[in-house]
Amino acid sequence: MRRWGLVIGLLLVAGWFVVYQIMDYRIPIVQKGTLVIWGWDGYFPESLQGKFYRETGFTLDVRWDDLPADENIVETLLAGEPACDLIMPSANVGKDLRDRNLIADFDPSLFSRPDLLPISTATRYNPNFDPENQFVIPYAWGATGIGYDVDRVDGLPSSWSAIFAEKPSRDERNTLIERPLQKVMMLDDARFTLGSMLLFMGDTPNTTDPTAVYRAADQLVKLRRLAEADDTGDRYYEIVYGEEQIPDLLRNGQLGLSMTWSADVTMAMHDQMGTDADADEVVKTPGNPRVRLALPKEGSIVFRDSFMIPLQAHHTHMPGAEDPGGRSEASWKVDPAEADRWEAVHRLIEFMLRPENAAVVTESSKFATTVKEADAYIDPFITNGPSFLMHASGKNQFLEVLDEPMRKVYQQAWENVKNNRLYAETVSDEDSAGEAPTDVVLELPVATP
Questions:
Q1: Rounded to two decimals, what is the model's pTM?
Q2: Which domains does the chain have, with CATH numbers?
Q3: pLDDT tens digits for 162-197?
Q4: CA 425 to CA 64: how far, in whole Å?
Q5: pLDDT (tens digit per residue) in 280-293
Q6: DSSP E strand boundaries for 137-211
Q7: What is the β-pairing status of strands 300-307 and 396-398?
């Protein structure tokens, strides 16, 4: 009798174990669909994608290349119905997108864990125009700074002058140690690189003064020319614009100074696992413990990649509805055919906000999370390192949305930088070609800051 009791007990335990496993993984019976996301795939590691599928039956199609730059996202969404369920631009564009009826308000009734929102009362995370996360949920953040190798740089590069000053001297700034040609990287991003130069020149990265923008661009061009001047004796570095290779170059000791994202330095400090195609085996590249991040005294530009839902992805407009602001329930309704996806995208956001899942994202991508409860799950080496560094109050700068004329100014100025041309040369070429010059009048040459 006791033997039968033992058998029954074991069967019950096994049964409960199976039930627990099913409940834990929430294995669906059928695939329900695919959610398309315009965002960086680094925020959606394969382990989390698999976990979300087991819970909901939805797979994820993450398309980084489809996400427009912040300056172009309004134009992209206005062009037609977005072919995506979720976008992850910077938080600063949220108000403009909502005012134009391009993103939807979240439906609180579809979040089963109201304790996850709002993410924080700190303005370093939440934009001041949406402190309760009604339509924008910042998820990952980082800051611009100076990445450097202590073996290749003399002292702490505490100012943007370490990269942007024309004639470096040990009295004025920390300099590269005397060695063969050094490589200096700058971000291949108009707003962040021009904005950082503007900070160095005593201006704001959100300036609407065309003269200031072109002066910043001219200074970058002059730096590049100085670096390329073989016959001057001042060629102490080579300027290269890029982003993706920065962590590898810092990790391998091939980079002395770099304008960089904070997380890039954390990546460089960590070991990297890769595959040797020839040997068909996993290879580990050791991290560089001599790499550091400095936040320049003039200030850093902070980004907050955020969850937003395109309005027209799941909603239809109700013709004739009286709604002067365009935001009432009578104006836009969830399309019944998209109801499942509308609910699923809320489940995805909530899934990503769970502290244990947000921690996986930070551990994988090295970008800081806005979910403070996730810190307990993250390696202290990351939470106490470059990824989570931020200036004291007053030194953090957030990019603002520019109007169309100023967007064109920044774009033209950046084209000048990439083409290694001064503003005066651009105007001169336009005049000689019989084209109408720009209506921006500058006093050139540019004074050295």
A1: 0.81
A2: 2-141+304-386 (3.40.190.10), 144-299+400-432 (3.40.190.10)
A3: 888 865 544 444 444 444 446 778 888 899 999 999
A4: 36
A5: 666 778 899 999 99
A6: 137-149, 182-186
A7: parallel
